[in-house]
Design goal:
The protein is mainly beta and 162 residues long. It has a domain at 60-157: Periplasmic metal-binding protein Tp34-type (Immunoglobulin-like, Sandwich), CATH 2.60.40.2480. Helices cover 10% and strands 32% of the residues. The chain has one helix at residues 9-24; strands at 60-64, 68-73, 81-87, 99-106, 113-116, 118-119, 125-128, 140-147, 150-157. The strands form two sheets. The chain has a five-stranded antiparallel beta sheet, with no helix packed on it. A four-stranded antiparallel beta sheet has the order 5-4-8-9, with no helix packed on it.
Length: 162
């Protein structure tokens, strides 16, 4: 069986090869290539990842990776520190998405206070209590948790929830 190329195929290959060889001998152009920005995507605040960093519970919103947000709500009275988890578009996740959630309160001139948090009765957040924080501006807190078999921690200023 003989294979036949479409009519004019050899001519197209020859022209393409000549163009490649001729361009190899030219000096590079001094002009910069024109780059156009990609068109802006249509914005839908309900589905744009990372578009909403507003606290839903009055705390501090942070991110871990591209698909997890968490909100830390600190209580200066020490009675009800909370941590909430949300996905990339800030839809609530059950508290059980994480494990081993704990806060370590570091007050100047005092021993660190570790507070192991527990899942609240509604299953929406992690909650724990400890000693009152008299000087929030001089206090820091370490949040630690495990998610997807990975341990994570971050140090934050003690910013009381609103």
């Amino acid at each position: 069986m003989t294979h036949r190329w479409p009519k004019g195929f050899a001519r197209h290959v020859t022209v393409a090869a000549a163009a490649v060889f001729m361009s190899c001998n030219r000096a590079p152009s001094a002009r910069q290539p024109v780059v156009q920005a990609a068109p802006a995507p249509v914005s839908n605040a309900g589905s744009v990842p990372h578009g909403d960093h507003n606290p839903h519970h009055g705390g501090i919103v942070m991110m871990k990776g591209d698909d997890l947000h968490y909100e830390v709500v600190l209580d200066p009275s020490g009675r009800a520190h909370r941590v909430y988890f949300t996905d990339a578009i800030r839809e609530d996740l059950p508290a059980s998405v994480a494990s081993e959630v704990a806060l370590t309160i570091h007050r100047p001139g005092a021993a660190d206070e570790r507070i192991a948090l527990q899942i609240d009765d509604a299953g929406e957040s992690w909650i724990g209590s400890g000693q009152p924080v008299g000087a929030p501006a001089a206090t820091t807190v370490r949040l630690a948790f495990s998610i997807r078999q990975e341990q994570y921690w971050i140090d934050l200023p003690f910013a009381p929830g609103k």
